[in-house]
Design a protein that fits this description.
Structural class: alpha+beta
Number of helices: 3
Number of domains: 1
Number of strands: 6
Strand order of the largest sheet: 1-2-4-5-6-3
CATH architecture: Roll
CATH topology: Thiol Ester Dehydrase, Chain A
Shape: elongated
């Protein structure tokens, strides 16, 4: 696995393993959500924080509040994939991202993901100021 930032887009690379597929060697549909989650976690690390750090230092975490997924083409065993992540909105207590799973530059799965910032009691919480500033700096909207 590798990752890189490309301006306002973050790219996370991964290989499809046997455990990701069904009996026919095709990626099981729900695993794309896992791939997207990994990409978002690495994206946070790329801007200087991480999920554990947010919880430990600020008492907040992210939860998916909505997700629209369009499956265009299947990925298969041993494919090298890239998950492209671009923030589309940063609010006071939320953010949205467009995430596209690609193989050789071709779109396989397109997702629009809404995330809520929550405190440890599960209630909405404002994004920490330093995190919000970093998110806005790399945001498309």
């Amino acid at each position: 696995m590798s990752s890189r930032g490309t301006g306002k887009e973050y790219v996370f690379s991964l290989r499809v393993y046997y455990e990701d597929t069904d009996a026919g060697g095709v990626v099981y549909y729900a695993n794309y959500l896992k791939f997207a989650e990994r990409a978002r976690s690495e994206f946070l690390r790329s801007i200087g924080t991480g999920n554990r750090q947010l919880k430990d230092q600020h008492g907040v975490l992210f939860a998916v509040s909505g997700c629209a997924v369009k499956y265009k083409k299947p990925a298969k065993l041993d494919d090298m994939l890239e998950v492209h992540t671009a923030l589309t909105n940063v609010g006071g207590a939320s953010m949205s991202a467009a995430q596209i799973v690609k193989r050789d530059g071709e779109d396989l799965v397109v997702m629009d993901v809404d995330l809520a910032c929550l405190n440890e009691a599960g209630r909405p919480a404002r994004l920490p100021a330093t995190l919000r500033e970093a998110l806005v700096a790399v945001s498309n909207g």
